[in-house]
Amino acid sequence: MKSTIFRTGVMLIFLALTSALVEAEVKLPAIFSDNMVMQQQTEAAIWGTATANSTVRLTTSWNKRSYSAKAGSDGKWKVKVSTPSAGGPYSITISQGKTIVLKNVLIGEVWVCSGQSNMEMPVKGYRNQPITGSIEYITTSSNPSIRLITVPKVTSLTPLDDFNGSWKLCEPENVSEFSATAYFFGLMLNKTLGIPVGLINTSWGGTRIEPWISEAGFKNFDWVKLPDKSVQQEKLSPQTPTVLYNAMINPIAGYGIRGAIWYQGETNRNEDVQYEKLMPGLALNWRAMWNVGDFPMYYVQIAPFDYGPAGANSAFLREAQLKASTAILNFGMACIMDTGEKDCIHPA
Q1: What SS3 state is found at 87?
Q2: Bridge-based pairing state of the strands 100-115 and 87-95
Q3: pTM
Q4: What is the rounded CA–CA span in Å between residue 68 and residue 78?
Q5: What are phi and psi of 244, to 5 degrees?
Q6: Chain centroid, CA 100 distance in Å
Q7: Three-state secondary structure call for residue 235
Q8: How far is CA 313 from CA 73, 81, 270, 272, 347, in A?
Q9: What distance in Å separates the CA atoms of residue 205 and residue 194, rounded to the nearest whole number?
């Protein structure tokens, strides 16, 4: 009997200690993983959760420097690390309880790539809508200096802190499924600059611009009806204002980047007057949320697709995009009137 009690007591103590160790583990959001690219020559933020009020220690291999951060009562912590000129691979060691080592980390240029289907369209193309030269590009795509991560399509009425995903190597099977616009942009940067490039694809076909702006970003746009967060909705439309920012931008907001590219506007084409204001509004909103200055944002003017007689002429939306390009600093437009296709909304 005494032996049974003793064994039970030992087991309870073991379980309690195991539970404490599990609780003490540092947890990182998906944007921080093996194979990631960090923005060069900056103070790059790294954050996560740990035991409430504990101290998290972090060491970067490129300069052997150690950092520490105190977790709050909610367990959240954040630290900024100094990044060198482009290079790698490096590692980052994070400890508080169980040690985490982020491996194969590169330092280079990082870009957020967002919008609707013309940004989402993968390098392999859509059904009956190919990408010119895609087979050759995919089969020759292995490149240790480019890394890819895709944020899954999710909606939320409230800001989320994380998503399901991880940084992927630039290899045929990953490139095939990745945004073509983002990939070719990154490939151009990599070849031109000769340094590592990290691409964050967060896009959703058919979506309007309003879902990609946070609640704080609508203070000057009183014609936009914000959702009632107190009302539970079984199926939240991706067209609802704020819901894509909350789920697909907020989890990466603050990650060290050089800038962002944007390819969207088709779904807002009948509201050119409002879109002319919403476009720079989106850029200013994201810059405020990142809080790292007026980073550049470049966008594609919508293609000259023939929408038919219904609705407004798409030239009005293209004019609105042109006007928006001079509304704020570091806001540039790429015109594709010479390469778009009259009968296909997704130029090959």
Answers
A1: strand
A2: antiparallel
A3: 0.92
A4: 9
A5: -85, -35
A6: 22
A7: coil
A8: 55, 49, 8, 10, 19
A9: 32
Backbone phi, psi, residue 32, to 5°: -105, 105
Q: What is the Cα–Cα distance from 225 to 294, expressed in whole angstroms?
A: 27
Q: Torsion angle of alpha carbons 326, 332, 337, 338, nearest 10°?
A: 130
Tens digits of pLDDT across the chain (348 residues): 555 555 555 454 444 444 444 445 899 999 999 999 999 999 999 999 999 999 999 999 999 999 999 999 999 999 999 999 999 999 999 988 789 999 999 999 999 999 999 999 999 999 999 999 999 999 999 999 999 999 999 999 999 999 999 999 999 999 999 999 999 999 999 999 999 999 999 999 999 999 999 999 999 999 999 998 887 777 899 999 999 999 999 999 999 999 999 999 999 999 999 999 999 999 999 999 999 999 999 999 999 999 998 888 999 999 999 999 999 999 999 999 998 889 999 999
Cα-based angle 166, 263, 290 (whole degrees, multiple of 5):
55
Length of the chain: 348
The amino acid sitting at 154 is: V
DSSP line for 2-60:
HHHHHHHHHHHHHHHHHHHHHHH--B--TTS-TT-EEESSSEEEEEEE-STT-EEEEEE
